[in-house]
Methyltransferase
Amino acid sequence: MNPQALFVFFSKLKEGLVLAPTEVRRLFHGRGRTYEGLEQITCDWIGQHLVVQLFRPVTDEFLAELTKGLESLASEPDYVSIRSISIQHRYEQGAPTQFLLGEQPDKVEVVESGLKYWMNISSNQNSGLFLDMRLGRDWVRANAKGKNVLNLFAYTCGFSVAAIAGGATQVVNVDMASSSLNRGRDNHHLNNQEVSRVKFLAHDIFKSWGKIKRMGPYDLIISDPPSFQKGSFALTKDYQKILRRLPDLLTENGQVLACVNSPSVTSDFVIEGMAEHAPTLNYLQRLDNPPEFADVDSEASLKVQLFSR
């Protein structure tokens, strides 16, 4: 990467801190390859903690300029709210973290679109909230009123929190990891929401269709699977098994928000899969990704697609 390009990096950081000073946000997304010379660096603003991630080794000059610029940023009066600054070296085993300022707790409370979530900012994998899904959660909140919602691969229930905030009558969250669902329950409590309207099923989806169907039919189904989960899910092999079940779970006018976050498949993967395995569902639109996650190849980024009966 090019140290002479870092002025763009710091310009975007300052711009983002002004636009969303109290909300969780990706401030710089070099991995979208829209910033030449900065393709392997990102920066997130997480609960007043500045988290920089490097995905490839950099030169001593680059690291020195990056460190100098971050320390200078923290000293400016406009950015006194910064509690800590860290650089995670994601290309090294264990992703060691270098602290330039302060310390980071294991768990912090963040705000997105006015809703609260817990995040693990020291984790290099399971932070608790995928920031590129912000507009997806906003869409669910805006369209959930009076609906029975099924949230497949629920993780920490971000969609569920958004749906209840939007007036959903019930949300059924399904995920194999009980620890993730426990965090989801904590997220609902953090927003003082009625957990009596929320179900948490720590089940293997493929072995639980009967139980899932009994809690339906659903007005809205959200399917946001991992690209790969060892021993339980492989996107290109298993997503079709999800799609063919959808018609039996939906109400007459039900909708499906089908998500894919693998650069190895395009948006046609779900559109064509739905046409083959759930032909009664029609493709409506692909939701926008947040502008901070711009990518030179839109098909390599997150794909959130809406279908309707």
User: Anything to note?
Assistant: Residues 60-75 form the longest helix (16 residues).
